[in-house]
Amino acid sequence: MKQLLRLIFLIPCFAFTQVNAAKYVCPPCNHPCDSTTYDQPGVCAHCGMTLVEKNQQIVKDQKITVCFYLYDGVEVLDFAGPMEVFSYAGFKVITVAKTKAPLMSQGILKIIPDYSIKDAPQTDIFAVFGGSDDVAANDPEVISWIRSRDGATKNYFSVCTGAFILGKAGLLDQLTVTTFHKSITNLQNAVPKAKVLQNVRYVDNGRIITTAGISAGIDGALHLVAKLKGKEVAEAVAKQIEYDKYIPEQGMNLSPQH
Amino acid sequence: MKQLLRLIFLIPCFAFTQVNAAKYVCPPCNHPCDSTTYDQPGVCAHCGMTLVEKNQQIVKDQKITVCFYLYDGVEVLDFAGPMEVFSYAGFKVITVAKTKAPLMSQGILKIIPDYSIKDAPQTDIFAVFGGSDDVAANDPEVISWIRSRDGATKNYFSVCTGAFILGKAGLLDQLTVTTFHKSITNLQNAVPKAKVLQNVRYVDNGRIITTAGISAGIDGALHLVAKLKGKEVAEAVAKQIEYDKYIPEQGMNLSPQH
């Protein structure tokens, strides 16, 4: 009886200990440390991000998803800059191509996409990039697939001549947009119903963001992070990736919510 | 006899016409337009680079070669920034990993390397990048392979925590170097014979260039292009990739030739 009473007395103490044994994790960063748990708050020894309580992180794990549509001849920095930014912002990035066959980026980097257009899941954001963009823009099957996802796509994001692909899908009509500095006139001709601007780092129309060429994708991606997760998160990502040259709100924001 | 004389007279004219039928090509940029020939000077319709005479290009085709050593967990922007820069500067980039098995960059991008350490050709420049750098730095076989190439390697180039790999290969002793901003102390402890600086975009020791974290690889790569091919080429590449934020000579140049 005495032992039973002791046990009854101990149960709440044990339960209390369990509740208070907070565990800490880094915000999701797509590095192996995503699965590391720490007993104390502080910074992650691997990625250097400030740790958060594990329970908080579970809520944050409802990640924003992004489809990176890739193709033979896609420009490497066009997609890698935003991939780095979205990764540190905790977005879940998937790569998709027309088929799952390996493709070459810039004639150098051989990539195996995660999905083809036959089995790619829907994502919150659809992102396209420049390079040999006509490989995608002139492929009716790809354009039709992009259109078929439109209802569930919350945001579009293009870097450089990736804008030609969105234009071909009819997404840029009536919008103010931008592209690679040497393709301004070509895009204006291709999408006469859009207003194509030069000398702007990115243009945010609310649902659709288009950026200038190649490295401008980094700025556009940071802008999208600021828009969806807050300025502080974008600034933390810029600091993490040592993009000291980040100038918040450097582009043109025509977003109705702005 | 009259006809023979006419023929003799015409031969040099014909030869002269041939010599002057100049063809124009874009500087090598690893895009499909590398094989396009134009009859007139101007700019390449695809990549927008200023055309050069084909004969000049043949001389330039003796390309500087770069080995991009990749591994599971390599940071995507670390290597993609320099890959973009070197590509437009006309360097020939190859990717090498320990084996030819696909590897994951940042847990997102699946890459098939061109070569393994068993069959990779020698290159002028050896480049390493950050991320899960201990995968390479703690692999004696990889470190031994890097050392075995040392005699024929003209330049080393590290981005971010890629410096740990060069350090493990004994290449940073007695040098002033840099790395990812959160790894300054760790690198100093790992390579006590080096002087590890913070708050510097890159450090050029002549043969070995180390850069700060992630996006700083773009600046370091542009510096290496300026060093090997001239400031004008680096500025043209920065303009092409719309890296308007490029500040020439932003890093620390300790190169003896400087």
Structural class, from secondary structure content of chain A? alpha/beta
Which runs of chain A of at least 5 residues are low in confidence (pLDDT < 50)? 7-20
**Strands of the biggest beta sheet of chain A: in what spatial order?**
7-4-3-8-9-13-12-14
Helix content of chain A: 25-40%
Level-2 CATH architecture of the largest domain in chain A: 3-Layer(aba) Sandwich
CATH class category name of the largest domain in chain A: Alpha Beta
Shape of chain A: globular
Number of strands of chain A: 14
Approximate strand percentage of chain A: 15-25%
What is the CATH third-level topology name of the largest domain in chain A? Rossmann fold
Quaternary structure: homodimer
> How many domain modules of chain A?
2
Order of helices and strands of chain A: HEEHEHEEEEEHHEHEHEEEHHE
Report the biggest beta sheet of chain A as strand number plus sense, adding barrel if it closes: 8 strands, mixed
- Give the chain pair forming the largest contact, with residue counts: A-B, 43 and 44 residues
| Mean of pLDDT of chain A | 88
Radius of gyration of chain A: 22 Å
Query: End-to-end distance of chain A, in Å?
Result: 69 Å
At the fourth CATH level, what is the homologous superfamily of the largest domain in chain A?
Answer: Class I glutamine amidotransferase (GATase) domain
